[in-house]
TrEMBL record, chain A:
The keyword tRNA processing does not apply. Keywords: Membrane, Signal, Transmembrane, Transmembrane helix. Residues 44-65 are annotated as: Disordered. Residues 1-25 form the signal peptide. It comes from the Bacteria. This is CbtA family protein. The chain crosses the membrane at residues 77-102, 114-133, 153-172, 179-202, 222-246. Coiled coil: none annotated.
UniProtKB/TrEMBL annotation, chain B:
Keywords: Membrane, Transmembrane, Transmembrane helix. InterPro entries: CbtB_put. It comes from Nocardioides mangrovi. This is CbtB-domain containing protein. The chain crosses the membrane at residues 23-43.
Length: 262, 72
């Protein structure tokens, strides 16, 4: 097996995951984005007309100033672009990580080690950052704090990924010394302790104001469903594609052995 | 007896690891490329703008919100 074989399958799995993510986000998430934008526009009409200059200087745009992209384009082609780009990029990265750990996690088969990578990836890259800094709909979030919030989000994401990699390496090492049960439990517990502490240390963001709680919950539920679709489809397809590859490699090796023995 | 039972050929055994020397250039180049793509979709023209303007931000706006990235 070569790096190329992994990468090609990862890019394909990521492309298909991107399309699935677009479909789910469009069907499940967009109604709540539309509700939030309607609320935002209803709210902004009260007080921002008096402060037009102020509004344009914040760079907070919804097809009203700056570059105009229609709502139709944002929720169809724009959403598709974002979903597919993220899907292909994640697919490539996850496949290369799977290539790196193949045959290096004890006696796990290629299917098993790839499933471990995809599962840890979902938890460390999507789920845990979401629990600390959940997605916010349009109309929530102060444009003046976008710099700080971006830094905090990606900082927390980086801590989560590094902690997951180190905890996994620790678990693989411990499994050899103290057995699979204790090794895996200690590895997972280490990651959880690090992330709970990091979650306490990183600043809290609360810019929700009087945004309706039901719309916020529907939007966030749709967002985590979207993220789960991305990682779920990517993981399932990559395990399937790489599993077939492993089967072919095994069959070829057996035929060679048989031919050599004749 | 054992030969007939072993008929299904599967990749259930641990694969041979790919040497890290062989994997490294692929991982570095495509890892950086992937991170760059994720940057443009997730964060560009929010906190940092390359290029300036709002076209990329507006185009991927809904994906940025629904995929959980800080948007505005």
């Amino acid at each position: 097996m070569t790096a190329r074989a992994f990468l090609v399958r990862g890019l394909l799995a990521g492309l298909l995951a991107g399309f699935a993510t677009f479909f789910v986000a469009h069907q499940v998430g967009e109604p709540h984005v539309e509700t939030a934008i309607a609320l935002e526009e209803a709210g902004s009409s009260d007080h921002t007309h008096a402060a037009d200059a102020d509004e344009s200087s914040t760079g907070h745009t919804h097809a009203e100033d700056g570059t105009v992209v229609s709502r139709f384009d944002q929720r169809t082609w724009g959403l598709l672009t974002g979903s597919v780009a993220i899907g292909v990029a994640l697919g490539g990265i996850v496949a290369l990580v799977a290539a790196g750990v193949a045959g290096r996690i004890r006696s796990l088969s290629l299917r098993q080690s790839t499933a471990v990578v995809a599962t840890i990836g979902f938890v460390a890259v999507a789920l845990v950052p979401f629990l600390k800094y959940p997605a916010t709909p349009p109309a929530v979030g102060n444009a003046d704090t976008i710099g700080a919030r971006t830094g905090e989000y990606f900082g927390f994401l980086l801590v989560s990924v590094v902690a997951a990699v180190l905890a996994t390496a620790l678990a693989v090492r411990l499994v050899r010394q103290v057995g699979a049960y204790a090794g895996v439990v200690i590895g997972i517990a280490t990651y959880l302790v690090v992330m709970v502490v990091a979650g306490q240390v990183f600043p809290t963001v609360n810019e929700i104001g009087d945004f309706p709680a039901d719309v916020l919950w529907y939007f966030r539920r749709a967002s985590i469903i979207t993220l789960a679709t991305m990682w779920g489809v990517l993981g399932v397809l990559l395990v399937g594609f790489l599993g077939r590859l492993a089967d072919q490699e095994t069959a070829t090796a057996r035929r060679r052995e048989l031919a050599a023995s004749l | 007896m054992s030969q007939t039972a072993a008929a299904p050929v599967t990749g259930a055994t641990a694969p041979t690891p790919i040497p890290l020397r062989e994997l490294a250039p692929w991982a570095i180049f495509f890892g950086l490329l992937g991170l760059l793509v994720i940057f443009f979709v997730s964060a560009d023209q929010g906190a940092i703008s390359i290029p300036s303007g709002t076209a990329i931000h507006e185009w991927v706006h809904d994906g940025r919100h629904l995929l959980g990235y800080p948007c505005h």
